[in-house]
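I hope you will forgive my troubling you with a question about protein structure. I should value your view on which stretches of the chain appear to form regular backbone elements. Here, with my thanks, is the record as I have it:
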Amino acid sequence: MEKIDYRFEVKRYNGVPTLFICDKPVHGWFTGDTSGMKFEKELIKCFPDHLYSLRIPSPEFNTLSLEKDIKKLLQKDKDAIILFHFRTDRMPQWWIEKYGDELIVYDDGGKKASQCGPEKMENPSISSEIWKQYVCDSIRKYTRYLKENYPERFSGYYFAWGICGEWNYYGETDMNDWRCPDFSSAMIKKFRSWLRERYENNVELLRKSWNDSTIDFEGAKIPQRIKRLSSELGFFRDPLKNRDVTDYYQFVSDITADTFIDFCKTAKEQSNNTIICGGGYGGLMDINVCSYLYFGLTTSGGIKKVLDSPYVDFYSTPYSYYSREIGVGDCSYMCITESWKLHNKIRLGDNDTRTSLAEPFHKPFGRPDTIRDSIEILKRDFGQHLIRTSGGFGVTKWLDHPQLIKTVSKLNRIGQLSMKYDRSSADGIAMIVDVDSLFYQKMANILMYKLLYEQRMNEFGRIGTPWHLYLHDDLAISDMPDYRVYVFLNTFYLTDSERKTIKEKVCRNNNTVVWIYAPGFQNEKGFSMDAIEDLAGIRVKYENVSANSEIKIINFSHPLTDNIIPDSRDSFLGVRKMFEWSGTPSHGHMDHTGIVEPVFYADDPGAVVLGKIISINKPGFVMKDMGEWKSIYISAPMLTAKILRNICKFSGVHIYLDTDDLLYANRHFVVVHTKTKGEKTINLPVEANVYEAFENRCIGKSIKRFTEFIPARCTRIYFLEY
């Protein structure tokens, strides 16, 4: 009998990275533990690809419990294909007792910290080579065992470390009582070694960079809490000062990324590259800009390394927990979605959607009250996955109801259908994010919160056209697609070469470029207002004060302010009550006011003034025609969907839906999730045969525009056949 090559891999298919099983492309939906479910058999039938996730709870090698779990699953589904969720940091007690110097140490000398719950834990430092080697040895053992015994069932690993297994650094979440990590001997040793490499073992380079004539590689210390929380100019650290802090941030980000990659590499090499590897890495847009202070940087600061690694096949993050309520929740992802896609990685979403079967305490996380609303939420969340071309992991215990199982079955069939068509992104706008800028700012500040978190969840999904997230580094990649509108969210720290790349890529072709707050303000030489003008083409100044950033629109005769009603919600930029539409509580560890420091404003006679900062009566919203492109500068860190929609219309970007309902779209699907009931008109870029996929209902043949009455809090999934 010919030996079958059981191979699990990621390759491009119909325009996007796709999971392949033995050369067959699959949609990639995994289900978890179905034990104890009343309708277990019915749910299993909903997943035609037979994909499952099982846990390896500790790196301690134990085939007895693993074998039990595998056999139990195979009794339910003999065709099961398993991705193993490998928890790398839950060390056995003997290891903790033996290697006490390898554990995280906090600034109060303690080694235990609470993480998303009351449980107190001692955890290995991410810098521990002893721990890392132990885990790698365990990965090799498990891989050999699984390849020998279950070659056709073993698809790969999801590697988990840190809080919630998402590679977020261990530390307290409360800003008012923050125990600061990591002062272990392992961390100090690793930091000094990293500094030697960074500064080419040249102590004079280190002293010049740190502005300390006495420092050497043997005496370099982990920055203390007070230095990590400090800044020289409001939100901003001076790049020429406190270099020890920014170096430390970069160091922890680097070694976290290196460790994640090494685990994937170890598994790939041991399996002869026949499995897929990844994990819960990359929650840049959420975790590090809200309540989690410093340690969220570990899952984002090294993201460029991970994106470039051939050993990482997928990433997995939940969607934002405080953006899930029916009708108003955006289910916006925590990750830089299009960057991962551009680098040939797939997203396997951690889809822990709450239904009405979830316990009542899940209400702040979008738990609906009825089965009807549960169905519409499941459709909405699946629609986002469908458009972003990602699979995911399902939480099964909240699906144990005939109507919900029927819904999941229908949605999976739509997912299977989508595999036959071009799944690449539809034209839209590009949102540009910078990682390095986070190192040069105060932690958990309101500026980043509003730029990367709040406006993303409140506004972006309601523009009426697709919006795509990229790192600014992607602009240098030849495969990076062109857009008509670029919005630079937080590109504050830019080197001269990075600024040059941005200008060459976007400042052309009659594009519209939106700059927010202080683009390019920080560079290798410190602070620079000239660098802002060089980048944006608009002269900008600042007042070194702490003040409200709210902008009031004063010019209503310009296309960018078309249909904006004076003194309405949309006539103000910069201050927005968190999730005002849903009433969902915001994170308790953040200052949610609109106070910024310093306050930047435009001071350019060649720019058209559209709005002024109320607190200082200076221009905060301006546009300037640069000849080959249009430059828009907005000093407030909070834009509205309507203003962004007007920018799109002004720039010739196709608008599918001219309301504030949620819209997602790619080449063959358009998904609408309504806040209010009413007639909704969808405009298509080209003629198509249109069907409502979930209801299997024809809308019209060869049409570019259609109108449907859609109830409030309802999801429609439209399929476009050309």
About this structure: The CA atoms of residues 312 and 556 lie 49 Å apart. Confidence is low (pLDDT under 50) at residues 290-296, 577-592. The two ends are 45 Å apart (CA to CA).
